[in-house]
Amino acid sequence: MTHTWPAGAVTHGDIALALADNDPSRMLEPTPEQRRVIEAPPVPSLVMAGAGSGKTQTMVQRIVWLVAAQGVHPTEILGLTFTRKAAGELRERVQLALARLRSEGLVGGDEFATPEVSTYNSFANRVFSENALLIGQEPDARIVDEMTAFALMRSVVLASDDERLSSLDLQLAAITALALNVARAMRDNQLTADACDAFVAEFRRVGQLPGRGKGNTPSKPVTDAVAILEELPIFVALAERYQLEKRKRGLIEFSDQVTFAAEICAGTPAVAAELRSRHRFVILDEYQDTSVGQTRLLGTIFGDHPVLAVGDPKQSIYGWRGASPGNMRRFHRDFRTRIAPPAEEPTFQLSISWRNDARILDAANQVASRLPEADDPGVTQLGTRPGAAAGTVSLAFPETLDDEADAVATWMRDRIVGSGSGSGETRPPSGAVLLRAGKLLPLFSAALTRAGVPNRVIGLGGLLSSPEVVDLRCAMRVAHDSTAGNELLRLLVGAKYRFGLADVKVIHDISRRLANRDVTMAALADDVRASRRELATGDDEVPLQEALDFLATRIRGAARRDEPDTWLTGLSDEALRRIPRVNDLISALRRNSGLPITSFVDATISIMGLDLEVTANPDNIARVGNLDAFVEAAASFASAEPDADLGAFLDWVEIAAGEDTLAPVQEQAEPGVVQLLSIHGSKGLEWDFVAVPRSVEGEMPSSSRDGLGWIRRGAIPYELLLDAHDRPTLSWRDAESQKELADLMADLRERIRERNDDEERRLAYVAYTRARHELLITGSYWSAIHKAPRKVSVFVSELADAGIIEAPPENTLEDAPTSLAADSVAWPHQPFTEARRRRVDELSGAVARAQLDATIPDEVLDRRIELLLRERADRNTVTNIQLPARFAASKFKDLVTDPAEIAAQLRRPMPQKPFRQTRIGTMFHAWVEAHYAAPNVGGDLLGMAEIFGTEDAALGSLADASGADFAELERLQDAFLETPWPHRTPILVEQTIEFRLGDRTVVCKIDAVFEHDGRIEVVDWKTGRVPSGESARWERQLQLALYTLAYSEHTGVAPELIDAVLVYVREGEEIRVPEVTGRRELERLLTEAEAALSAANPSA
């Protein structure tokens, strides 16, 4: 039967008017669709919320309506989402709304009563830690992040004595990653090693089925499948050992928490009953991204409960990380314990896009129209908002990839540089370049830089593809691994040494010759050579490094003896000069490879001269930041895994490079800057202008890498998974011959390809719906990467057929354009253009002529030396140093008081071990955040493992905290609890907000914001001592001034309604700033800092 809520004294209109500050002109009442969601009955309900359809606002309205109109106590409402950023935003909006309604008398109670909003992982963590002893687990187990998990599995692989590992013929990093995937899949799907081994044993029998023809010839697809499945027990054994090591070391992963929490709730019904009693109403955000383990946990706890699940099947793009493809479709089955009529299984729609202009929505709907869910009557096509602008969708399809990158850069320059968004906004517009894969991000970033467009690559994946970081990684790998031939080859033929192909071939031939010699250089007997090959890896050559070392010694010996050496025959004069230099560099790198990881990264940058190279090129100054970011990544790894060696770091980087581009990012759109990131990373974000390059077959959409699905290395057979019913099946047990099974496998491959095509469509839908006003879709036929021309993407063809974009020009070339032809490429690559080469030659000639001129008087030489020394001193201080385009608010004081020092520090940061006071401050802030996140528990009662065992990787350095540090933290906690602040409810805690100040972006991480007597209080916790003197107090308030401005722009609250408060916890003293520095004065200070740098620059 249909549920009807009792009529409340508070209406939707009352709520809307209160939230609009009693201004009817700003009042936004819910739409009929939103009203149905807000008033969803107290049974499991599903909401299909399209991209940009206002789901977050509707969830907020649902919570507010339950409290104001239905009398639900705020603490009885639970909201879950995926990222801490999303949870923080939802929590902030709910608390702001409730505070506003409370001030209008529409909501009773006190300000401490707030809903619980957290991530799925944090909720599972709480359920586990509160009840771990029920299943014999330790509640204070330390949560491990990706870095620690990878390092632990790598150590398990290295320690294994399983002889089967040698048969895998895989690198250590690949084995580690595959074993980790198997371990997690087994945990998520409650699989035992026995179940996996039993399946392999059964599947092995298909190799005994009759083969082809009279000769009973085995079918290659079948024998290959058997060989692949034979490897699964190897990974399963590693997974089992990994789980034992975690238990032994007191470690736990997020997936473990989900599994253990589900086990607790299923085995102890009283725990689930208590959670249902505590959380009378539940909202599940981004439900399409939940894993089968998470839905099992939530269904066990909240079955037949008032659950509102909000999601969009068209945006289900995280299947690779465990998101179950059919969870939206199965929702009612998962959350109902009995068969119910359709009226008791409600499904609602949010089908109006409040983000996208009309033409962009047309493109998104068109590409999504062929998805399976498009035929579901419960999934409605997105419609435009009332009054939506037309918007534009454009296509650029030049001949070459380089031309495509330039077209994107020009399009962005015309819209971003010195332009408004065209939508009435006063802030600079935002832009993004979204790619299916991260490897081309540096190419498009370089094009934007050439066009003068401020840009930033987001994520580690794109960073690791930049040329300077590739060189850095190769050098580090060469230092660590003497057999790293590919990496050494990259260094040899790169711009630094520029070995020609003929010289490379000679060096390679010499390495083969050396393999056939003993230590006396005598030729090996044939039987010895055969034994060596059999006992070793089968290679018939020594490592390239060994050959270089041998040649360097021969070159130096020949020079001393002044006689020819037959081993050096065939090498060019340039190679004879460069080989000793390369060998010296490798020796220097290897001598330093025993340093701590971060120190070695910095030493490698210096030895390679990479810092000088990137700063010397004014066109690529952004590349300095790439090196800095890599140093930061190394520091994060070393902090998380202080005992890990260089090899572990390099292996982790290799794996992270591929996976990072798939992860959602925690960034916000940056006004006036074009952000470059993967489509996977863009979900949940939006920009004014978006470009989606590489819309060609094989890239967008990409080709399926899954092949036969579960018949691949490191994969669990589908039929063993908990969501097997949502995956393609292979009826291999029904096959009566190998040919029949091969045909069934071919059919499976086709169904998996269709499934991949659907996933690519969802990616395109996500990419297109990121754009508010304008969307550019690009592609190109030719690139140096592929010999044959690429075909136009099926998505482009469909959009052209629908009349949304013009048809792309046809490819008229049978062969690659001249600019890409192999016979036009100069080798080795010239590091200078012809113009720069001529200029270098001119300067070199001038130096040579000066050296020959012996008539210059000594006093003139002295004067010139003095000038040169002065110039060098000037250059070492301020030349080419600029204020950073993006900086943290905490750095602002230093920027305006000592701009040269802070700019130089940011340009080339030296990794430092965190100061003790910094570490204690970080611990205190994390504790305060946990205190406010669990108001019903009380921060003083939370265990340290629960607080610091979060998904915030930045807290990894707290592993270094000592007993004295925790004692100091306890003193700060006691002092804090004596103040009025812990008994108040914040609007937000530890919220990051970015805003533009002049032409710079300021990143503010605000400690806390409260509402009191109709005013907003922005609070900054200080664990140090109260400053003395007006100057020191003025400097302290600068950071609060930025926070005030950031919060004002973020929420629309006028700055004059915001109070700034410094709370010195240790001394229990508050400093209320009567009037913080305003925007105009802050911009003046920034301008003066820039002017100071410009005046101090000798080139000014």
Automatic annotation (TrEMBL):
<dbReference type="GO" id="GO:0003677">
    <property type="term" value="F:DNA binding"/>
</dbReference>
<keyword id="KW-0238">DNA-binding</keyword>
<keyword id="KW-0378">Hydrolase</keyword>
<dbReference type="GO" id="GO:0005524">
    <property type="term" value="F:ATP binding"/>
</dbReference>
<keyword id="KW-0413">Isomerase</keyword>
<keyword id="KW-0547">Nucleotide-binding</keyword>
<keyword id="KW-0067">ATP-binding</keyword>
<keyword id="KW-0347">Helicase</keyword>
<dbReference type="GO" id="GO:0043138">
    <property type="term" value="F:3'-5' DNA helicase activity"/>
</dbReference>
<dbReference type="InterPro" id="IPR014016">
    <property type="entry name" value="UvrD-like_ATP-bd"/>
</dbReference>
<feature type="binding site">
    <location>
        <begin position="49"/>
        <end position="56"/>
    </location>
    <ligand>
        <name>ATP</name>
    </ligand>
</feature>
<feature type="domain" description="UvrD-like helicase ATP-binding">
    <location>
        <begin position="28"/>
        <end position="357"/>
    </location>
</feature>
<keyword id="KW-0269">Exonuclease</keyword>
<feature type="domain" description="UvrD-like helicase C-terminal">
    <location>
        <begin position="358"/>
        <end position="684"/>
    </location>
</feature>
<dbReference type="InterPro" id="IPR014017">
    <property type="entry name" value="DNA_helicase_UvrD-like_C"/>
</dbReference>
<dbReference type="InterPro" id="IPR011604">
    <property type="entry name" value="PDDEXK-like_dom_sf"/>
</dbReference>
<dbReference type="InterPro" id="IPR000212">
    <property type="entry name" value="DNA_helicase_UvrD/REP"/>
</dbReference>
<dbReference type="InterPro" id="IPR027417">
    <property type="entry name" value="P-loop_NTPase"/>
</dbReference>
<protein>
    <recommendedName>
        <fullName>DNA 3'-5' helicase</fullName>
        <ecNumber>5.6.2.4</ecNumber>
    </recommendedName>
</protein>
<dbReference type="GO" id="GO:0000725">
    <property type="term" value="P:recombinational repair"/>
</dbReference>
<dbReference type="GO" id="GO:0033202">
    <property type="term" value="C:DNA helicase complex"/>
</dbReference>
<dbReference type="InterPro" id="IPR038726">
    <property type="entry name" value="PDDEXK_AddAB-type"/>
</dbReference>
<keyword id="KW-0540">Nuclease</keyword>
<dbReference type="Pfam" id="PF13361">
    <property type="entry name" value="UvrD_C"/>
</dbReference>
<dbReference type="GO" id="GO:0005829">
    <property type="term" value="C:cytosol"/>
</dbReference>
<dbReference type="InterPro" id="IPR011335">
    <property type="entry name" value="Restrct_endonuc-II-like"/>
</dbReference>
<keyword id="KW-0234">DNA repair</keyword>
<dbReference type="Pfam" id="PF12705">
    <property type="entry name" value="PDDEXK_1"/>
</dbReference>
<dbReference type="Pfam" id="PF00580">
    <property type="entry name" value="UvrD-helicase"/>
</dbReference>
<keyword id="KW-0227">DNA damage</keyword>
<dbReference type="GO" id="GO:0004527">
    <property type="term" value="F:exonuclease activity"/>
</dbReference>
